[in-house]
Amino acid sequence: MSDLRHLLTHVTRRPAILPFRNQLIFSTLCLMALNAGNAHAQTLDYNAFETLFGEPVTSSATGKPQRASDLPTDMQIITHDQIVSSGAQSVPDVLRMVAGINVRSYSTLGANVSIRGNDAAGGSRTLVLVDGRQVYLDGYNFTDWGLLPVSLRDIRQIEVVRGPNSAVYGFNASGGVINIVTRDVLHENKSYIHLNGGSLGNFGGELVASHKFSSQLAAKLSLNGFQADEYRDARSRGTILKTHTLNASLDLRGQITSPIDWQLSGTIGQERTPFWADLGTYAVTNPLSKSLEGKINADTSAGLIEFKAYQNSYTSGAYDTVSALGMTLPIDFDYSLDTTDTQLSDTISLNSQNDLRLAAEYRYTTLSAREAGMQLASEYDMLAAGSVVWDYRILPDLTLTNAVRLDAFYVPSMRNPLPAYGEISASHQYIEPSFNSRIRYDAGAAGVFGLNVARGIQLPALFDFAPTMSFGAATILNNASIMPSTTINIGLNYSRNIRPVGAYFSLALFAQRTSNMLGTPFSPNFNYSPPATLTTQPENYGRVDVAGGEARLNGSVLAGLKWDLSYAMTAVRDLNKSSLINFQRQTPVNSVIGGFSYNLGKFELSSHVRWQSHYQDIIADFSRLTLNNVKIHGFVTLNARIAWHFDKRFILSLSGDQLADPELRETSGLRIQRRLLGGLTAQF
């Protein structure tokens, strides 16, 4: 009953907030929870509590259930209704309309998503999770968005944490965290099929089949995929003309005894897509992703104990040809990345004022890379970590939350597998602390004030530790001195309800400093020695400072209209400027986002628009083996959707992407084209 206790405690501290009708509903829900299911009391029923409080609820910030307005961190939650009404066809399309997030679309499936800048095309400092399982790829520090094992309409909510959160989520959450939460079949037994098709040869769909066999067992099967023509200038860029993806997942949920439940999940997915690397060119990839995860939760007298373990497998390759130095050079590179992770946590309610979450994690990752079938590198790393989160309600309206984590990371010394090279790479051992500390004060009608300080850690990609190797005209040197980057962040937050106009205002300001900034595995600095020798080496690139913030105003009116307006500013200062990727110029400074959704009987109408200022991307010049800067001018992205609920179970929809321009230069890659899609959803 841990989630119920925490929310009960929260409500009793603010009795004036709930009108009598909601108190009655709350009492009814409590009785239903007590009478209908000790079996599910230890899991969070998002739907019930979101209906009760009129806002999303999450347990991602501290391990205990909390309302969105009470979170001890700078988090924005995108709800299921917002995802569907956006008309988006992918998770990056949804995230594009969130203040503080930058999305670059390099192809139909390929995208880079970053929080508050500091990212380049091929790498990311933003940790991405699906139901708490990492899908971020440590081997090369990026996320393959086309292989997310989730169906868009099955997503319960997307939780966006801005700023470093390594103390809660571990290494590689130094920029922020995106946690995608899908529906729990124990609490939301919903099934549907969705088909869509339209311009650019788009055809795809989703199938989610859920079934509750009994109060002790439920299952959910999810399938999603599509195929499409690549954007029009794919031919001139020398990459593939068609792309496709297919993903599947199976979740089993059940109960062992009244206070103990379990989950077993498996996923598989494959895609074919052009991949844009920070080398400023495309390569064709055909990756295969698989995962298996098990969880067990026990609501005991010692607290809410959770144990989970998962294994991720990702196999990919880059196959193409590049014309350089008057020659045609083949690219035939493939790799396998496997991660095994185990986590144990205990969330304890010490008394009415103090909650504690203790956690431990062990991770083992292997990477095997080959060129034309020849082994280049075979390496592994190990990580062990312990963390504690302490939530202290000093006064009814004053809360202090502290999170501390200690990570021990080890990469062994490795001998070069190529016979011609006997070099041994140096071993690496790091012990790094991270922390998040936030104080929150609820001043009633004056609003809610927050102050937070954090230290985040970003690891080099596992590939960056590979021994010196050579293939063709290129040589990659091992850097024995490479080390993690660290980010110190200070933030101020303010929010309040503006009741006369039914609106909610939030403001976040931040300043952060990253030391030993890391580049990406795809574009370390290189030296070219004529006639045909290219040498690269991963490096740390000194200090990068960032300052900025986000302001958001959103609300609704009784007529069925919901609206949202936000502004974000991110000013990056790259003091070192030694990287070929200029972090300062790679981030647009300003962006403005606006949108609305309107329900009128059986009809829904929604539209979202985003303007962002210019930034700088790169493109490769293989005739000279250089990277050239490309200025991407400020642009507008406009999406719209109209839907008709012509039957209780059926919905017809028409969505338009990139309506502001027939072709948009969003990056130095392919030009993004306007797309119209019709859809049919059947719920059963």
From TrEMBL:
UniProt superkingdom: Bacteria
Domain TonB-dependent receptor plug: start-end pairs: 69-177
Chain coiled-coil ranges: none
Transmembrane segments: none
Localization in the cell: Cell outer membrane
Major site of localization recorded for this protein: membrane
Segment forming the signal sequence: 1-41
Keyword line: Cell outer membrane, Membrane, Receptor, Signal, Transmembrane, Transmembrane beta strand, Transport
Topological category with respect to the lipid bilayer: Multi-pass membrane protein
SUPFAM superfamilies listed in its UniProt record: Porins
Similarity comment: family membership: Belongs to the TonB-dependent receptor family.
Name assigned to this protein: TonB-dependent receptor plug domain-containing protein
Organism: Acetobacter musti
